[in-house]
What does this fold into?
Amino acid sequence: MKTSFPVGSKLTLPLTFFLLAATEHSVAGSNEADTDKTVVMDTINVTGKAVKTDTDTETVEDTLSTSIKDVFEKNISVGVGGPTATSQKVFVNGIEETNLNVQIDGARQVNNIWHHNANLLIDPGVLKAVSVDAGVAAADAGPGALGGSLRYETKDVDDLLQPGRDYGAFLSGGFASNLDTFTKSGAAYGRYRDVEAMGYASHAEGGNYDAGNGDPVLGTGTNLLSALGKLAYTTEGGHRFEASAQHLSDDEIRPFRANFAAVRGQTLLSENIFNRNTANFKYSTRQPSKFYDPEVRFYYNDTSLSRPNPNGGFRPGYFDSTIESVGATALNRLKTPLGELSAGMDFYQDRARTDNFHDASMTETARNLGGFAQLRSEPADWLKFSGGVRLDSQEFESVDRKLFDNTGASPNVSLSITPLTDLTLNGSYSYVFGGIQLAEAALFHTMPYSAYSADLAAQRSTNAKAGLSYRLASVKFEGEVFSTRIQNTPAYQEGEDSFVRVNGPAVKTEGLNLGVGYQRANADFGAHYTNTEVSYDHSQLGTLAFYLGSPVGEIIKLHAAYAWPELGIKTGVSSEIALKYRFAQDSGNRDLNGYHTYNVFAQWQPNFYRGLTLRAEVNNLTDEDYTDRYTAGTAVGFITPLQNPGRSVLVSTRLEF
It folds into this structure.
């Protein structure tokens, strides 16, 4: 393993050796395909910022996430690129989220509209939990999990109500100094007999922020509106019916390419209207039996991006694109002599539409019908097994009206062995049929991406992990080695008058994740390290590989927190340390500089009224001038990437009634 250190780093060298030494007996670790965990971070339960939970000890929990990057602050497998909500994309082991099965409350998200914008706009303030299957995912995680799955779950009435109460409400507000942003949010919720209801709304508004060097970063203002409503009814027999609807929008002046500050020295700005709407209906039971524990879900999701030409009519760069998705899942969990079996079917239809204010509206459609079965078994106290298979049939109608029919199977297997009380060995493997993804919807706005190769093939991937975890008193060491390879990636071949979509080379990620954590009483500490290499066509992946991935290299994440329950006070610190990433000399890419960032917080929840929370935090404490590792365009000379915000003081309060 080759390690490069940024100039002036006094902390990185000893810390890296500490991590390697601390995990000498834990060379690697992995997660079961069905446990909704990443190896290094376990399940991410969100009460604001993502925290690791451990059933044996009390966990120190941070609160009040302000961006999706906060949610994954402690997860070394997950990186978030882009400093603004409309430019942020999530990467799992370096693979972009468009290659994962991504869900919000079970509603599958398909959001590859425009490669310069975020794939998914989400409000962390409503999140209850986030589950990450990095690489290997179970069969019932859903179709198209080429690089794993990512599942967001929003809060319910039960998560918000105080003990012994049947109704409640909260109001919260905050201000960020650098971003000059005010955030206001509130919710009301309650239960009457068998009916539950809640409503939530939030609005964040502010101006451009300054980078660490003091320069303003144009097009980074905030105007984010979020709303969520839920209604549920549970019968005396335990039958539960739930309906929810969510809306998010961002309407602001952004860079012409929202994830670049400038191209060839030119900074262009335009109106950028981003919307996401999700509706969901779910049936389940609160009184399951041995053979009856069903879940039936219907959902609708649409994401749109509008960039209107201020002068009207057609002009390259202006368009109105929408991706609509409808789907359903029906499954049942039943107990068998071998373990719990989850079996069922799912369906989706995705449709992309683009209007470039010049030609007729262009559309593309994908439909998929899948069946799955996943067995989770624990034949002995020291042995856990999970195995399953999906069978998917996809029909794809391209923008040039070609039809592609593909069918494929996706098996997975996972094994966990505990030979000693505190030692667990894990291994897992999956082969995934991914079908043909919709093309980037906005590609059709100006360039003639209107032809498809007749032999276009479905995407497929292989994923493998191996590793262990070891606990010594209150200290836990864990790690994993992993590999993901995705074939038939989207690519375009230039012709005389058009670009033809063809099968592209494979993208591959492989690497090592290590971690050590300490949890005891009211204290929590963790240090995590990754060394990940992502390649495309056997060469290092660059920083403009949209819908594929991002270079990662070596990154260290640190966090520590302590609570004084008798005073109602929590304090903590977190840090991200990226080491310098070197490209091959003949690659044409610039090396990526390393950086150190530090965030601190203090929070007070007075004992005389637990419904009041006061919080202060300082992000980028040292005013580091940097661009984070996963941001696009950092290795290309003619692009000026978006710099991350400099030091910012955030103060916030929350009052529950």
